[in-house]
Specification:
Elements (H helix, E strand, L loop, with lengths): L1 H24 L2 H5 L15 H18 L1 H8 L2 H15 L7 H15 L1 H16 L5 H19 L2 H11 L12 H40 L7 H15 L2 H11 L5
Helix pairs in contact: 5-6, 5-10, 7-8, 8-10, 9-10, 10-11
Length: 259
């Protein structure tokens, strides 16, 4: 019986060695048929047009590398992801929902809220540029205007005054005189302030539950038992009964006042 198993194992090993040898003996050109390749070449620029094209490609790669930062700075993503992070911490569920879920939900909500602005950019800047109706400079100006309108609709006057007092010597007469590099940090400060205000309001009911559970445990003499272990089921039950996700998402969307 053992001899049969050994002979069968030797047979399998021999078959695998034969298949491996056959694969190694196949010419490499057989695998290369129909496989596309990408090649990069670096050459000296001979004309100003070639230099301009190279600079445009470099600028495009730079923009793509900082695209996540642009998304964080000029859209509603910051407020949404911070508020959802506060919800997870207030419930005490640690990594539930996972970070990937929180980021994904924040991104989709960002696309949903920013859809009017994105459609306006597509109609006024992207499509005319693709149809060669406007040049790059005009397309950038047309794309920047809806983003400025969105940020002006959300920025608070106190943060805007703070940044304009620091960066500008004279008070602006209208918002067209405020540079975009001044508007963006003011918008970020406003988003941080609002998100922390909403996070504070979210923390209050969960904090009340923790205090009630802690006082009950102390009155029962169970001081060594962590209150979080007992309060977490009650916080989850409260969150489910009041339909917490719908309330939070609805409050987030309504807080932008653009739909």
């Amino acid at each position: 019986m053992y001899s049969r198993k050994i002979s069968k194992a030797h047979g399998i090993t021999a078959a695998l060695l034969a298949i491996t040898a056959a694969v190694l003996l196949i010419p490499a050109s057989t695998f290369a048929v129909g496989v596309p390749t990408i090649s990069f070449a670096v050459a000296d620029a001979e004309t100003p047009e070639q230099v301009s094209t190279g600079l445009q490609v470099l600028f495009l790669l730079t923009i793509l590398s900082i695209a996540p930062a642009i998304l964080l700075m000029t859209t509603c993503f910051t407020r949404i992801v911070i508020v959802l992070g506060f919800v997870r911490q207030a419930m005490g569920t640690q990594n539930m929902p996972p970070t990937q879920v929180v980021i994904g939900l924040s991104l989709f909500l960002t696309f949903f809220i920013m859809s009017p602005t994105i459609n306006q950019i597509n109609e006024n800047a992207l499509q005319p540029y693709l149809n060669e109706e406007i040049n790059q400079t005009e397309a950038l100006d047309e794309a920047l205007e809806p983003m400025r309108d969105f940020m002006f609709s959300q920025v608070k006057e106190s943060e805007l005054n703070l940044l304009t007092d620091i960066t500008m010597s004279d008070d602006p007469f209208d918002r067209d005189e405020i540079p975009t590099m001044t508007l963006i940090p003011a918008f970020i400060l406003s988003e941080l302030k609002r998100s922390f205000q909403m996070g504070f309001m979210i923390y209050i009911p969960f904090l009340v539950i923790d205090m009630i559970v802690a006082s009950i445990l102390m009155s029962m003499g169970m001081m060594m038992l962590p209150p979080v272990i007992i309060s977490m089921p009650f916080k989850l039950l409260l969150f489910v009964l009041v339909d917490g996700w719908a309330l939070i998402i609805g409050s987030l969307i309504k807080s932008f006042n653009i739909l």
